[in-house]
Amino acid sequence: xxxxxVILPKNCAIGxxxxxxxxxxxxxxxxxxxxxxxxxxxxIDQYQRHFLNELDRFLAVIARWDVYVEPxxxxxxxxxxxxxxxxxxxxxxxxxxxxxxFSTGLVESNAIVNxxxxxxxxxxxxxxxxxxxxxxxxxxxxxxxxxxxxPISVPPIEWLYIYRxxxxxxxxGTTPYLDAWVNxxxxxxxxxxxxxx
Length: 197
Hints:
By secondary structure, the chain is of the alpha/beta class. Helix content is 45%, strand content 16%.
């Protein structure tokens, strides 16, 4: 059963629906169906400082562990990642209304559910703040797969740090995916609590 399987980083894929480089940020600015970049009133330079610099460091680190990265994730490439080649597919993106942002713009949750092959039996890890209705739809309509979503809001730069820790833990080859998540989130929470005292 995959919930108890030890999953290595090379069996994981992470796809970015939000811009993963300067060019995709600038394209998103010109896309009326894109939402996330509008939060950066300082434009590309602010986004570079607040996210892209850390993303570059993150990508360099996870390359050591052979995590597959899809930097320009659209619905078609998301669906392709779910062909069974990977045990875990992480969707790193932004939720707005009832939609998730992909490199092509916002996509409604029903289209995302339809993009998930019914036979996919791995994990879909939603690194998206509060996609509750998407989680409900996936759990209802794609019961072969396992949905992981944390009901917390965390800035993307912090998620990169958490995923770096997660892949490091998985690289040890001793811990099932969900157990690794629990361990990492406990450690992060402990660091936060220690910082408050």
